[in-house]
Specification:
Structural class: mainly alpha
Helix content: 55-70%
Number of helices: 13
Number of strands: 0
Radius of gyration: 18 Å
Shape: globular
């Protein structure tokens, strides 16, 4: 799937990227400012977009579809789902997929895993973004770990332009619900979704139970699974990363899997990889 030719940067060479810090701090402050623009419809649009961009765009799209190819959909639908993922403001598809594949290829390695939990909770949660390493953030280097996406013109465009997509999204939200929809649908939604996604990198490698004796410290954590629409069943996922279903037990709620099942019922999802005992 990927090349293992990964150059590494010594830890002592890491430098704080102030532009990144200012960007994330600004979005967090704007999310706090949203308290002065509160309305129940605005809260509703936040929750709706959190699910739509998070579960459909990131969990189903960037993660299970593009990173692991755990199922297939028609190309037009794959493009649409990837576009939804780009609206989540978590990077372009090539960047996201390359980093996640590296995480699985070198899980918890302090040098080769972009967000290794062995480097501490806050590193795996968010500091890896503030201290960017070229091999993980420079397109000419990380592209080698997502060659299937790099070959596609649409994904190259989306990887370059994902940030600009926030502009028409903000305009649309303002047209629908004014500034409350902008503050809550853009900034509060982005902050909540960032931290929910980052929880999978951090807390699910620290707390929870282990169904499978994997070589890493991945865990199944119920509250992380609820916040991330099923991604919190992380030990299951690390044991069988190419399986489309993260929650294996009846009580392991996996909302993203429900969406995949719905697509399968419609005949839009095929070659869905199931757990070994369910094939």
């Amino acid at each position: 799937m990927t090349s293992n030719n990964l150059s590494v940067t010594p830890q002592e060479d890491l430098q704080l990227n102030w532009a990144t810090v200012i960007f994330f701090v600004s979005i967090h402050l704007l999310a706090v400012a949203a308290l002065w623009f509160f309305s129940w419809p605005a809260l509703g649009i936040t929750l709706l977009l959190h699910w739509f961009f998070g579960s459909i765009g990131i969990c189903l799209g960037y993660h299970r579809l593009l990173s692991h190819r755990s199922f297939q959909v028609p190309q037009w639908l794959e493009y649409l789902i990837a576009f939804i993922g780009a609206l989540a403001l978590q990077g372009g598809p090539i960047f996201w997929v390359a980093g996640h594949r590296l995480h699985h290829l070198h899980t918890e390695d302090e040098v080769k895993d972009p967000y290794s939990a062995r480097r501490g909770f806050w590193w795996s949660h968010m500091l890896w973004i503030f201290y960017p390493r070229r091999e993980f953030f420079n397109y000419t280097q990380y592209r080698q770990f997502a060659p299937d996406l790099v070959r596609d013109r649409f994904y190259r465009w989306l990887d370059r332009c994902y940030l600009l997509l926030q502009i028409p999204l903000a305009i649309l939200l303002h047209a629908i619900g004014g500034w409350p929809f902008v503050f809550w649908g853009m900034f509060v939604r982005a902050v909540l979704l960032w931290h929910c996604t980052w929880f999978i990198n951090s807390v699910t490698h620290v707390w929870g139970y282990r169904t499978f004796n994997t070589a890493d410290n991945s865990r199944n954590l119920w509250w992380a699974a609820l916040l991330t629409y099923g991604e919190g069943w992380h030990n299951n996922h690390h044991a069988y990363p190419n399986v489309a279903k993260a929650g294996w037990q009846w009580w392991e709620i996996d909302i993203t899997w429900w969406a995949i099942t719905f697509l399968k019922t419609l005949g839009l999802a095929r070659k869905v990889n199931l757990p070994p005992d369910q094939v």
